[in-house]
Amino acid sequence: MIGAREDDDAAVWKADRGAVVATVDSMVEGIDFRLEWPGLTFRLLGRRLMSVNLSDLAAMGADPGHALISLCLPGSLALRDVTDLYRGISERARQYGCTVAGGDLSGTDGPMVLTAALYGTLPTGRRPLRRSGARAGWALGVTGVLGRAAAGLGLLLAGKSPRTAAERRWVRSQYDPSPRVGAGQTLAESGIRVGGDISDGLYREIERIAGPAGLGATIEADQMPLDRDLRRDRDHAWAGGLMESEDYELVCAAPRAVLDAAQRRLWRTERLTLTIIGTLTPEKGIRIRVDGRLVSIPSLGAGYDHFR
Amino acid sequence: MIGAREDDDAAVWKADRGAVVATVDSMVEGIDFRLEWPGLTFRLLGRRLMSVNLSDLAAMGADPGHALISLCLPGSLALRDVTDLYRGISERARQYGCTVAGGDLSGTDGPMVLTAALYGTLPTGRRPLRRSGARAGWALGVTGVLGRAAAGLGLLLAGKSPRTAAERRWVRSQYDPSPRVGAGQTLAESGIRVGGDISDGLYREIERIAGPAGLGATIEADQMPLDRDLRRDRDHAWAGGLMESEDYELVCAAPRAVLDAAQRRLWRTERLTLTIIGTLTPEKGIRIRVDGRLVSIPSLGAGYDHFR
Predict the structure, then answer these.
(1) ipTM of this predicted complex?
(2) Structural domain range at position B238
(3) What is the pTM of this model?
(4) Number of domains making up chain A
(5) How far is B219 from chain A (nearest CA, A)?
């Protein structure tokens, strides 16, 4: 193991009051990204590594604090690429008030693995957004615009370079998502208690919120805040693209009046939309209403819970 | 990215008072371990992942608190191996009062990469061991016994299975090191302010302590607490084996009287030896006294400081 430390064996910082919120995520070459994708730079990779982790803090309504970075890189990598990677990491961290406190650098004979562990804070009095606690009849809201990242990934996997303004926007959403840190804080401070990010797909995240409470959901297809250039292909977008979408938006659930107030506040503080897209129902399962007809979405499972 | 979460996007726990100490370390298959090494199990790999990170907290004198785990594993790995890995991680964590708070699981087409980020606390009033602040004339102390892990690694790299009791002891030190968590706390509480772990080698760690203060060190070869079955081959041990030794012991520097008191306290609390092996000198460079003759050790550099 090659050590990469500031000065000591570990990083030290003063504890904040309140609660600690912590997350770790890895990006694996060949699985989460491919170096041959057009326009993908090491700086963008560094930014993305921070963004996916910042999104987990955002999903809890936390303030980002400190990051630890562990990079496993092939020895053949050019120093310039390593520098660009760090540059992307630190510029994205700084942008969201996060300090890169330490890290570890290892050699590897295989694909690159980039890992970040992020620590944030919930100040005393701010309660987190959680997946548990949803009630039937509550409205479901989602921040921002949907479908872009999935459309961008589709282009990249098909080996296409983006040509139109829309295609460039989609690929940018895939490469360089904006974690909704300010939005998460605003939702939590608006009294919303239930929510999560939709990086594993909107429907899966709604299932994770509804399922444990013994509930289901009805989603209104014509309320979905799809990218304007995806609306023409709406059926595709809601049926397929959104299942595995890597949009880094937040979904939340609360009584309608609470969501309405949060909507106004979010627009004021972040210039970001919060769109009501459906309702939690006592009937289990996720259904989408398309042209007046209810279509059931097959269960996606809650994910992999090896740490239980 | 495959999500592996308890219930939410991130883990939450109540902040302790005092200072936070945090570290991250990855183990890469083919670099840090090889699955074909005799007797290496997935449970031992999990234990080792925790131990190398716990050692970083130990080196600061911190109390372990929470761990986040990110595993990049090939899809072909047997479920039983994954379960054994988690078992090793959680049993080692529990042993040192550490809670596995969350994690991430990714697929990979390449070598396994196992990462742990650990988060510990320095209670109000306990100051950390740091690499900076050493003074000329201070004595150097090291915990435990040296040379075993390097001897064990030597056997493994030579493709040999351990046969004698000594060889089994050496391989065990390599596979399943004991992080000196209690020792680090005791050293810090004995008023020692300067120290680190020697997982990157004893001489390198002494250089990291002496160098920034503009100092050097003289080490007494015949004071080194070598494993008894390595003493016959003493010249090899001090010259080569200890340079890159992966012993997870602690080295520290303080006025002689402070070290003497810490020595007694460490034996009382942990039944662990603290051996005085040398002195910090105003002359730069690391020298070893062997049979009355001073031998200079070439500088190893302080490591890779990409995050500066």
Answers:
(1) 0.84
(2) 139-297
(3) 0.88
(4) 2
(5) 22
